[in-house]
Amino acid sequence: MTQVPTQDAQPDQRDSTLDRNKQTVLAFYQAGINEKDFDAASMFIGDRYVQHNPRIADGIEGFRAFLDQLRTTFPELRAEVKNIVAEGDLVMAHVHGVRVPGQRGTAIVDVFRLEEGRIVEHWDVMQPIPEESANRNGMF
């Protein structure tokens, strides 16, 4: 009798890929967003890069222009990944972004799609952190 492999047949390999994808996204944040180092960050981007943020162009040159704008407009911007989850070829990061030190910042959810260990697609949703909240739960 021949056994048909199930999706759970190789959990260690799948978990390893998910962990690598999360580490890729974390390294991308550090190099690209926090250090604003295009050369270092571009190592984590695939040959094609689809951007769903309407203010950023597709492709590696769109990402370069985005980093140039960050470097000029918000040189002290920092992003702290609070939570990161991977499933399939997607990695979701819940991020606290602060453009200027001392400001409350923005709650961000970034979703990345990876192929062969490189980022090939990106979506994001951003919400400014309000001065007052109807609850004490915080945004992170």
UniProtKB/TrEMBL annotation:
Pfam families noted in UniProt: SnoaL
GO biological process: polyketide metabolic process
Official protein name in the record: Polyketide cyclase
